[in-house]
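Dear U.,

For the methods section draft, I wanted the exact inputs and outputs in one place so we can describe them consistently. I've listed the two proteins in the order they'll appear in the manuscript figures. Please don't edit the token lines directly; just add comments below if something needs changing.

First protein:
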Amino acid sequence: MLMELIFNLGLLLIIVILLILLSWVWPPDSPWAPRWRTKKETARAAFKLARLGKKDTVYELGSGEAIALMVAASEFKAKGVGIEIEPFRFFLSKITVWRKGLNKEIKFVRGNFYKEDLSGATVLYLYLVPQTLNRLIPKFRKELKKGTRIVSYKYEISLPLEKEDKKNELRLYII
């Protein structure tokens, strides 16, 4: 009985490690999916910069563990949509949001954000590499409504800059 339990726990550990390793290289069409996390303080500053409110819907492209979306929902009473292609991060974020009781405020799409419709966003939160940000500009211009706010953490986008929070490395753009 004890040996069976140890075997099952070992097998579970191996599966988790393999899923993490797979997440570093999958999907093959992703230009780069680093395992970055947004701190709550950064998300809070981003949403203050964007003047986020309860009528807003935040889309996070490459939502990872959904930390920013949880801050948007719990502190700013906004709705959230996370788009995540990597299966391990997708399921982890769904479980975390459910455990925190925010599953009515935050929805997830498991997919490629290049192929998903972004027209429902009033605010985009982005923590993506410059190559990806610039590749998304035509999609933003096509799908986002006039007045949609885009907050980029760390990296500039080739769009007119509206505001900048240098301390928190945040930039605000408005479509």
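Second protein (the one for the lower panel):
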Amino acid sequence: MQEKLLYEYAVIRYVPRVEREEFLNVGIILFCKQQRSVKMRWHINKAKLQSLAPEADVSELEAYLHAFSATAHGDKSGGPMAQEDAASRFRWLTAVRSSALQTSRPHPGFCADTENAIERLMEELVL
């Protein structure tokens, strides 16, 4: 029997006008302490984005998501925080903030394979 892994995940949200508190789910960030890893996937549904925020700059949002991803995956281009351990990166990225890119509160789950878990979460919550 395969070992079940405890993971935490948060939904990444684009909030074009913070004062309105409207958002579009654009990604998932997943942390597994046992694997010492952070995974992140993102996708922008441009039709939904256009209906929510016609003035949104897609290339700017993509740049934000690339930077978020670099930090999540520990890439040097993610800056000093990207050099921290997986738990610290996940906690920093999921901290409450008032910006265009926010996350939900972290939620726990169990899985046998974190790669399948993040793909399932993407299907259910973003795509």
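Candidate sentences for the figure legend, describing the second protein: DSSP finds four helices and five strands in the chain. The first helix runs from residue 46 to 52.

Thanks,
Y.
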